[in-house]
Task: structure prediction
Amino acid sequence: MAIEVGTSGSVPRIVAVRLGALLLLAGFPAALGAWYGGVSGAALAVLGVALAVLLRDTVQLARLLRWLRWPSRERLPVLHGVWAEAMYRSARQLRIWEGRLQREEDKLQRFIEALQASPNGVMLIDSSGQIDWCNATAAEHFGLDAQRDLRQHAVHLIRNPEFFAYMAAKRFVEPLLMRRSGSFGTLLLNIQVIPYGDGHKLLLSRDVTQAERTEAMRRDFVANVSHEIKTPLTVIAGFIESMRTLELSEAERERMLVLMQEQSDRMRSLVADLLTLAHLEGDPHQPVEEVVRMGPMVERLAAEARALSQGRHVVEASADAGDLRGASAELTSAFSNLVSNAVRYTPPGGRVVIGWRVVRRDEGESYAEFSVQDSGIGVAAEHIPRLTERFYRVDRGRSRESGGTGLGLAIVKHVLMRHQAELRVSSRVGQGSTFCARFPAARLVGGDVAN
Ligand code: ADP
Result:
């Protein structure tokens, strides 16, 4: 419905126009009344006009008031004259407010979207401790329903004694580290509360489970390295002390020097392995690749195994697949770790078989496999998943005796990862083990890889 008066004149002008109109409206009937009935006739005529105007205004006012109760720009009442002007002005004001409201709503929406996108949990808590709002991450961190749990008390929902004590103490300078267990495992949350406004609180939560795990691994690693170096250093220091203070025969001195050499060799191989590992872990780039000729590689590894075995084992080798695309030095280091382990963990008289072949599969992709099989002591099933952890050994004494650093398989794992390959281990205690490095067929150069 259109608004009849669409002007926006000033109030005095509207009043003047209205009074003029009234005078004109009342003037003619008054003159007519005076002509026919004198003064009383004129008064009657003016009264009639006034009543008519009052009735019309009352109807218009009622329509305006009804509309003002739920003003809508789509459903406008039929109004005339000054009432149409009043409605027009109200409608214009309404439009301005609606625009402002829309802009504020858009702003709020963008604000909420930004908070939702935050990788941290965000929760707004009001002065009575009830949850005003929380983003999806906070809901996930605390196991809440972002809609259903609104207006609930935060400490009642996040039922955790540490959290309860933290909120009660109101000392929010230090963040709270809180563990939360569930079907998903255990989360470690870093919680920070920032008071604002009139007793309101902004709660930020961050999942630091992975960071904590990495930090624990770093601490373990430093402790392990220190321990590994401390033992040979203590032995060497003891021998030096003995050589300085005791009267020793030439034979005794010689024996001590041999033992000292053994210990320093041990430290040297530990440092060499640590450097290799640091290089592999710290290098985000793909290794520079070349075509590694696997026939000669397998022969060299077999010769190495024989040298290490010194005739105590039977060593066999075969290379039935093509060459391998990869970083030669890294692959050599990984393969020789597997070969030396096979010799070191196989008692004299045992067998070590080194192989390089293509495995064709009826389903799925074919792959190329480097394998080292031994008839040695084997590994119990529960240890197998952990063998590639740094410094993880099934039998610490045996590893050390045979010159192990506990880092060999960690190096193997990293080298293989950098070549999109994986390590498969199958083993039986007392019967032997097979360590296989599986390379995607795409890394094979030459040789037949068809299914
Ligand atoms: P280490 O220097 O101790 O040999 P590795 O990382 O090479 O360290 O191997 C980790 C552990 O895995 C070894 O200590 C050993 O217990 C076990 N292991 C590795 N290879 C073999 C194998 N061929 N036979 C039996 N156990 C093995």
